[in-house]
Design a protein that fits this description.
With about 1550 residues, the protein is mainly beta. The protein has three helices and 145 strands. The strands form 36 sheets. The chain has a six-stranded mixed sheet. It has a five-stranded antiparallel sheet with strand order 6-5-4-9-10. Strands 15, 16, 19, 20 and 21 form a five-stranded antiparallel sheet that branches. A hairpin with a 2-residue loop joins strand 80 and strand 81.
């Protein structure tokens, strides 16, 4: 009956839910924005009297009638409209996302919806973590972050292109991290990330990624073409380029050898045949560390090669023109003639509806011009509103007046005018009947040439004279003039004239005038004015710069005044004329009498003006002696001491120093006029070295160090020993110390008796009687003071035995017990120890008799363990043997363990335990009867009669104590047949039930899904005491293995798993495949959808079915394959279908990319355009210059989707190799390099050459100017042209060749000139220079060389062996061994090391002249004299002696024999008979130095001959003959 009532209730609930199935919940906005609000409305609206809203498992609000209850999680943020049931949520957060369900009970309904709350995106930031990126080697990692935002989607951009994922490009972290591996140059660019979610979006900052690459793709052209053969005399310009970032460093090489040329350009002027060979351009990139090169072999031949083919092209063009004219003539012969005539008549006074901007163009007389046209059907070119050419279809008819000088391009109608004259100036326009397409104002002008500037006078006086400037040209029209000064930006000249009154020195120039018209400007040679001025107030200097000078020194006074011409100078001293007229006044070996006022008077003989200045000079004598003396006795601590400083010479100040520290007056040290230093009470710190330093304005001198030694003490007497307590029989050593200077004398006392007179005292073997006080007394015999200190010694006996005794044998817990420590010997203290450490006293453990006894008031079993006692005195300690204390206790805490419920037929085990020492014995009782004597008890198979109380008793035989515990056991029936019972197939969003069936007593049922507990929720409801689980409705997430578990107190039984499959879908159809693909490629389109069971798929294209599989393959793409592909997914169980689609675009490949330039040459300052022509599909076009991306700026403009780049005002820096890259979704192609040459210049020439030249010599000037093409140069001197080359050689020079030399650079293409000037001053030259010497250079004697110079010179320098000598201009200096005096070089003295080749060099402003080499050989010697012997053989009867001396020049030699004063022979060699024994002396004399040396040899005869050598210097040597009976030692 109970089961039927539950089924009836479930049926009523289902009927209620089915009745509300038509109600939907609709949010006012979804997704919603965090911080905002959303209203969940019921459609149709319901008047729910009782209901609730929840999100997930959490309640939001409940209401009944008009009363609402909002739960804490939504307090203040949730409100229900009672009449409609709508829920309004405010102050939304991301956590508010979820499934919201409304549950009504009056009426009954249930409905839900899912809403998402998204946080708005803010502060999008892009960071790049890698730098120094290298092509093909590096990887870049970029991270995109936001400070706020949820559910983020990321799109990455490089410039204007979306970054797509590929083999090298990867996205991670949800798309927020972009990594690019193996970077290429095309990965360079500004990166940014776009972040979006359903409610907002944001864009990051831009980060530029720069990839270093190259050098590669090198190109080398000669004169802008690929030709490699040229004739001798040609000028070659080689241009080298390489694609590289950063720009490569370029170095040129010829035939493999490096040239002294770097950069993109190598210029060879007037080449010759020997310049034939291979030219290489070497490129190096500092960042990539890579090299590359390109080589061209250039051939230079002596004869030119004639070009052919021109006449054929000309005749072909003529035939084509003639054919067109005939065709036009035939057409004009018909009715077309009438139309043409009417057209001419109707436009005789044309009025146009469009007026384009008129551009102005300047061209030179005699030149040509081409005006750009546009394509039109009919119309014509007009000059000042008059037709000069008519255009009708493909026929062009020129005016007879213009026919010979104009031509019109038949394709784009460009107008070319030849042989321009001034009358061609005017407005040219290209028009049809209604519109004017081109309008150009042409101004034809005569180019300016030969600009000159004249002045009314050159020599002027400041503030008085006026000068008139006149500028004129030899040719030119529409000329305006401007006068330039070096210090101004220029002033306009009226009709070429400008007047400057009251000139100043700042108006000296140089002045130039600039003449300009529309074709350019030209600058005149410069003019320099000679403005006479001054003298200004003289500037006076005294060298050296000192306030007071020392007597005996030298002083130089100088006077200078700004004046033109230079002013004359007159000196005065204290008002008296010194008759000195040079700018410098030299004062040598000055004394105090030279102190006074020196006045300088300056005068300009041209301006007739005077000025003067003065300076005071003061001179003082120096200090010559400083000594420190002590006026009292030794320095004793705390007594006074006085030092005195004694000085010789004028003194301005005295300072006292101690060890490099300045002494200041204080309470302990005072000064008596600084001459004396007094220490009121000497301190330890006063010990040290003292000096006094005396000074005046010109000198200072310090005394020798004076040592102050402080005597003190004795202080702080201390006595030390090894121990204050000593063991009987030992010795004691005591030492005594005291601080004292000099060291103290010491005396030891014991009981007032002297025991020692040393600082150390050693006792005899100690006994108890030697205990007492020992005193040391210290005495200083200088300070006459004494001091003492004492120490006490105690003599004691050692410890020899320690044991522990006790009063009982058996110890029982909670009874009294004590231990005693027995010791033999003197004891200071006793310590007790256990296994845990030192034993501490507490309320149960107490110490007695100075720790000798320990008492346990109530012993506890925790007191059991090992005990020791230790006796201690000053000489050692001794520990007793271990004593083991055993405490008997228990039983305590008897515990029974086992089940309280069991099923019939099973057996259970029970265990019993108790804390006891010794261990207890156990007994088991059931209903009062003993059933076991073991601690473990196991029952027989259980029946309901065995239910009851089981008791365990524990017993200790020593303590004679017992303890027990009990357990109640209940026996019940078991559970069986547990299984999950199901309905039919489960379908998503439809109700579904599972039921758990079981046999036996069941207390509770628990459900599990996939082995985890199943929880109830808004959809999952447990019914019939958890017997049934109801899914209302079922969702795909409910799929899984379900089990139910039946439980009672004795056991739990789990069913086998039941696999629940919830059928659903299809869900959202995902179509994947390429959105864009290249024609000819294969495309794979894939379709998928979440579905159980799996869906069936159908593909549609163009309204037709093209496939019935999930993957559709298009093997070969064409343009006809572009379009929308629709995929339909169908589930045959849920009977539902959904669709998705993909848009596919097929694009053609890029096949050709090339750059087209304008027909005319580019000129600096004018506009110029480049156009990129592409064949194929193009998304973007990028421009590069010299391999680097070209960026737009205020001069560089990209037009027509980057197809055209226009330089609004082209500059020389725009020259280079340009390429354009066309890009589509699949590929990119780069054009070949197109070289842009910008013609410019010339800039102001740069002149290199000397400022001075000597009469009779030649000087060379070189002129260069930046210009393309290279300029032609001409030189001018005094308005006359002197050369037409860049190099100018002037000479032989004369004085009238001084002046301005002007270089003019002319560019024949730009038609511009530019000039610059330099001033050459010709001076008298040095005619001859040579070295002379008037004395003989003798070693170690003074010697001089004289430099003889003919002609004026500024300075002389000396060289030895090609290197300049370090010489001193003061011969009293010892720093160098050379000194100079005027034109002489002095050796003080000359030595052999001075030998060498000497030159003197005389210099003036123009050149340095060197003398011929002068070889210096020093006269010396003799330094050494030796005698050598020779004879004919062992049997010879004669001996020859040869004398040699180290000398320059060679010495004069004389031979003497055995004390004779008359020479035996003259010359270096002497020969004599072997029987002529004796002493032979060689005398060597230098004929120049007159120095004489002797060398002696003794000849002894004793059966054979022996020679012995003796040397002497300056006198004859006498010796006795030695006779040897043995054989001769012959050397």
């Amino acid at each position: 009956m109970e089961g039927r009532s539950e089924g009836l209730f479930l049926l009523i609930m289902l009927q209620g839910f089915l009745a509300s199935g038509g109600v939907e919940v609709r949010p006012s906005i979804n997704p919603a924005v965090a911080g905002g609000a959303v209203t969940l409305s019921l459609v149709p609206s319901e008047n729910i009297k009782t209901g609730s809203w929840s999100v997930g498992q959490s309640p939001v609000v409940t209401w009944q009638g008009t009363h609402q209850a909002v739960f804490p999680s939504h307090t203040g943020r949730a409100f229900v409209n009672i009449s409609t049931g709508a829920l309004t949520l405010t102050s939304l957060t991301v956590a508010d996302s979820g499934v919201y369900e409304v549950l009504g009970t009056d009426p009954q309904l249930r409905a839900n919806t899912s809403i998402t709350v998204e946080e708005s995106i803010s502060n999008v930031t892009l960071t790049v973590t890698q730098t120094g990126l290298l092509e093909f080697q590096s990887s870049a990692l970029m991270n995109c972050s936001v400070s706020a935002g949820s559910s983020l989607s990321y799109v990455w951009m490089n410039s204007s292109s979306v970054v797509t994922v590929g083999d090298r490009v990867h996205l991670s972290n949800g798309g927020s991290t972009l990594s690019v591996s193996n970077l290429t140059r095309f990965d360079s660019g500004p990166f940014k990330c776009l972040v979006s979610n359903p409610v907002s979006n944001g864009t990051s900052n831009t980060e530029n990624v720069t990839v270093s690459y190259g050098p590669d793709n090198m190109a080398l052209t000669v004169n802008g073409q690929e030709t490699t053969s040229f004739t001798a005399g040609s000028n070659l310009t080689m241009l080298c380029s390489a694609q590289s970032n950063p720009a490569a460093q370029l170095q040129w090489a010829f035939k493999g050898a490096l040239m002294n040329s770097t950069g993109t350009q190598l210029q060879l002027i007037h080449v010759t045949e020997n310049q034939t060979g291979s030219y290489s351009c070497l490129a190096f990139n500092n960042n990539t560390s890579k090299y590359n090169n390109i080589t061209r072999t250039i051939t230079i031949s002596s004869s030119s090669i004639k070009k052919t083919g021109t006449s054929r092209d000309s005749s072909t063009s003529s035939r084509e023109k003639f054919s067109a004219d005939q065709k036009m003539e035939r057409r004009l012969s018909s009715g077309v003639m009438l139309v043409l005539i009417l057209t001419v008549i109707s436009v005789g006074d044309p009025v146009f509806s469009q007026s384009p901007t008129v551009s102005e163009l300047f061209k030179p007389v005699g030149g040509n011009v081409t005006l750009s046209g546009v394509s039109l059907a009919e119309g014509g070119w007009l000059y000042n509103c008059k037709y000069i050419a008519l255009i009708f279809g493909d026929h062009i008819s020129e005016s007879s007046v213009w026919k010979e000088r104009i031509s019109i391009n038949a394709t784009n109608y460009d107008l070319t005018i030849r042989a321009l004259n001034v009358n061609d100036s005017g407005v040219y326009s290209l028009s049809d009947v209604d519109n004017t397409f081109v309008s150009v104002k042409l101004s034809v002008q005569v180019p300016i040439s030969n600009v000159n500037l004249n002045v009314s006078q050159i020599n002027l006086v400041e503030f008085i004279d006026t000068v008139v400037f006149t500028c004129f040209v030899s040719a030119g029209s529409s000329v305006s003039y401007k006068l330039l000064n070096e210090t101004s930006t220029g002033v306009a000249m009226v009709n070429g004239t400008f007047t400057l009154p009251n000139v100043t020195r700042d108006n000296r120039g140089p002045f130039r005038c600039v003449a300009s018209n529309g074709l350019g400007d030209m600058t005149s040679p410069s003019v320099q004015l000679n403005v006479r001025y001054g003298p200004d107030m003289p500037v006076m200097k005294v060298m050296p710069e000192k306030a007071i000078h020392v007597s005996g020194s030298g002083i130089t006074l100088s006077c200078s005044a700004d004046s033109n011409p230079s002013a004359t100078v007159q000196w005065k001293f204290n008002g008296v004329n010194l008759n000195q007229n040079s700018p410098q006044l030299q004062l040598q070996n000055v004394s105090v009498n030279n102190s006074g006022v020196y006045e300088c008077i300056v005068h300009n003989p041209i301006t007739l003006r005077y000025n003067s200045g003065s300076v005071r000079v003061q001179i003082m004598d120096p200090i010559t002696s400083v000594v420190v003396k002590n006026t009292g006795g030794p320095a004793i601590l705390n007594k006074s001491l006085t030092l005195q400083c004694q000085v010789t010479g004028p003194v301005e100040g005295v300072q006292w120093w101690k060890e490099d520290q300045l002494i200041l007056s204080n309470s302990t040290a005072t000064f008596g006029d600084n001459w004396t230093l007094t220490f009121n009470a000497v301190q330890h710190s006063d010990d040290g070295t003292y000096m006094c330093k005396a000074s005046n304005s010109v000198s200072n001198m310090s005394s020798s160090p004076f040592q102050v030694t402080v005597h003190y003490g004795p202080e702080r007497v201390t006595v030390s020993g090894t121990n204050l307590k000593k063991k009987s029989g030992d010795n004691v050593t005591l030492s005594c110390q005291a601080e004292s200077n000099p060291p103290s004398h010491f005396t030891w006392y014991f009981n007032d008796v002297i025991v020692s007179s040393m600082s150390t005292f050693v006792s005899s073997p100690l006994t108890k009687e030697l205990s007492g006080q020992y005193t040391c007394v210290a005495f200083n015999n200088i300070t006459n003071l004494n001091s003492s200190d004492s120490i006490n010694i105690s003599v004691i006996d050692p410890i020899v035995n320690v044991t522990i005794t006790t009063n009982t044998i058996s110890v029982i817990e909670n009874e009294r017990h004590e231990l005693t420590c027995e010791v033999t010997g003197d004891v200071d203290e006793i310590h007790w120890m256990t296994e845990q450490g030192e034993l501490e006293e507490d309320n149960t453990t107490m110490f007695h008799m100075d720790n000798k006894t320990v008492k346990f008031v109530s012993v506890d079993h925790d007191d059991a363990g090992t005990y020791h006692c230790t006796a201690v005195n000053v000489f050692g300690n001794m520990t007793s043997r271990a004593y083991n204390l055993v405490v008997n206790y228990g039983p305590k805490m008897t515990t029974v363990k086992g089940p309280s419920v069991a099923t019939e037929g099973s057996s259970v085990s029970m265990s019993c335990s108790a804390d006891s020492l010794p261990e207890s014995s156990f007994s088991w009782y059931f209903n009062g009867s003993k059933v076991s004597n073991m601690s473990q008890f196991t029952t027989p198979p259980l029946t309901k009669e065995l239910s009851g109380q089981y008791t365990c008793e524990a017993f200790n035989s020593i303590t004679n104590r017992t303890s027990n515990d009990s357990l109640m056991l209940s026996v019940i029936e078991s559970i069986s047949n547990v299984q999950v019972q199901s309905m039919n197939s489960a379908v998503e969003r439809q109700p579904y039930n599972l039921t758990c069936g079981a046999t036996g007593p069941v207390d509770s049922i628990h459900w599990m899904k996939d082995s985890k507990p199943l929880q109830a929720g808004s959809r999952i409801v447990f019914l019939q005491n958890n017997k049934t689980v109801s899914f209302m409705p079922a969702e795909r997430s409910d799929t899984g293995n379900y089990q139910c578990m039946a439980c009672n107190q004795a056991e739990n039984v789990t069913s086998v798993p039941y696999n629940l499959i919830v059928n659903y879908g299809p869900g959202v159809v995902n179509v994947t495949g390429p959105g864009v693909e290249k024609a000819g490629k294969r495309a794979d389109l894939s379709c998928s959808a979440e579905s159980t069971p799996m869906s069936h798929f159908t593909w549609h294209f163009g309204g037709s079915v093209v496939a019935n599989t999930s993957v559709y393959v298009i093997p070969f793409l064409t343009q006809s394959n572009s379009g929308k592909y629709v995929c339909t997914a169908f589930n045959n169980v849920t009977n539902q279908n959904r669709t998705g689609y993909l848009m596919l675009s097929v694009v053609d490949p890029i096949t050709e990319v090339q750059i087209e330039q304008e027909m005319s040459s580019s000129m600096e300052g004018y506009s110029y355009s480049l156009q990129c022509n592409v064949t194929g599909s193009v998304d973007n076009i990028y421009w590069m210059k010299d391999g680097m991306p070209l960026q737009a700026d205020n001069r560089t403009v990209f037009m027509m989707d980057n197809k055209t780049v226009k330089f609004v005002s082209v500059k020389r820096s725009d020259a280079g190799n340009y390429s354009c890259m066309a890009v589509n979704s699949f590929e990119n192609m780069t054009s070949s390099f197109n070289k842009l040459v910008v013609n410019y210049g010339p800039d102001t020439p740069v002149i290199q050459g000397p400022e001075f030249g000597e009469v009779g010599s030649e000087v060379v000037f070189s002129c260069s100017a930046s210009s393309t093409p290279p300029s032609h140069f001409s030189w001018w001197f005094n308005d006359s042209q002197v050369a037409v080359t860049s190099m100018l050689t002037v000479g032989p020079l004369t004085f009238n060749m001084s002046g301005n030399y002007t270089c003019m650079a002319h560019n024949s293409l730009t038609g511009k000139n530019s000039t610059n000037s330099t001033v050459l001053t010709v001076i008298e030259g040095i005619k001859s220079i040579m070295i002379q010497n008037n004395t003989i250079p003798i070693n170690q004697q003074n010697f001089s060389l004289t430099c003889d110079i003919v002609g004026p010179y500024d300075a002389i320098s000396w060289m030895k062996d090609g290197e300049y000598l370090n010489v001193s201009d003061s011969c009293g200096s010892q720093k160098t061994k050379y000194c100079t005096e005027k034109n002489m070089l002095h050796f003080t003295p000359v030595t052999l090391q001075d030998e060498g080749k000497y030159q003197c060099a005389a210099t003036n402003k123009a050149a340095a002249h060197k003398s011929p080499e002068h070889t210096l050989l020093t006269i010396y010697g003799p330094l050494k004299v030796t005698i050598s012997r020779s004879n004919a053989g062992s049997q010879s009867t004669s001996v020859s002696l040869t004398c040699w001396a180290d000398s320059r020049p060679q010495c004069d030699f004389q031979w003497f024999f055995t004390n004779q004063t008359t020479p035996l022979k003259t010359g270096p060699q002497i020969t004599f008979n072997v029987t002529q024994a004796g002493i032979y002396v060689c005398k060597a004399t230098n004929p120049v130095t007159k120095v004489t040396m002797y060398q002696t040899e003794a000849l002894v005869v004793g059966g054979q001959v022996c020679l012995m050598h003796f040397a002497a210097h300056g006198s004859l040597l006498s010796m006795s003959l030695l006779v040897f009976s043995a054989h001769v030692l012959f050397r």
